[in-house]
Design a protein that fits this description.
This protein is mostly helical. The protein has helices spanning about 5-10, 15-35, 40-55, 65-90, 105, 115-135, 135-145, 150-160, 165-185. The chain is elongated. The model is unreliable at about 95-110 (pLDDT under 50).
């Protein structure tokens, strides 16, 4: 069955069709959440929340964007809500290291030599630290583009930005990350 049929049937209350959609997208949603909140338990909670919201809102899904883009938007919003709630609960004025991204734990192990493995681990740790130093806005846009591989148009739809704004913010985010990595001695052009 095609995805559009599953969406249509799920919008009419078919739980089996919705289960197919969840099965297809749960890993993607979970990994996006994990990259944004940096905590496996919170990412699992966000994933559940996203699919609960998707189930309830599916009858109003108009298909102006792809289903995956809609889920990315729901995930992004749910992560922001969670981070705001946590920030308020702690009374923090900025995000702390617990909420930083943990990319080193998420990327697949390529099976390199021990030396290559060590070097890769050091680079990933530096990248993780660099991402943690970025503003939430820059981190979000880098995750959506560089890790999730979304187009400028999809990112714009998720974040409510024009293509030009996405491109400029992405350029600034890349520059900020490169500057951090350069200053920490971990950047080789």
């Amino acid at each position: 069955m095609e995805e559009q049929e599953w969406i249509s049937q799920a919008a009419q209350g078919d739980t089996q069709a919705f289960a197919h959609l969840v099965e297809r997208y749960e890993t993607v949603v979970y990994h996006q959440a994990l990259r944004l909140v940096g905590n496996r338990e919170d990412a699992a909670d966000v994933t559940q929340e996203v699919f609960w919201k998707a189930w309830r809102a599916l009858p109003t899904f108009r298909g102006e964007s792809s289903f995956s883009t809609w889920l990315y938007r729901l995930t992004d919003n749910a992560c922001l809500d969670l981070l705001r709630r946590e920030k308020k609960r702690r009374g923090d004025t900025s995000l702390d290291d617990e909420e930083s991204l943990s990319l080193a734990q998420q990327l697949p192990h390529p099976g390199p030599s021990p030396q290559e493995h060590l070097e890769r681990g050091e680079k990933m740790t530096a990248l993780e630290q660099g991402l943690a130093q970025l503003s939430q806005e820059h981190r979000r846009i880098l995750v959506l583009r560089e890790i999730n591989g979304l187009s400028y148009q999809e990112i714009g739809a998720i974040l409510g930005l024009s293509d030009g704004t996405v491109k400029s913010r992405l350029a600034r985010a890349r520059l900020a990350l490169a500057n951090y990595l350069r200053q920490s001695g971990n950047f080789s052009p």
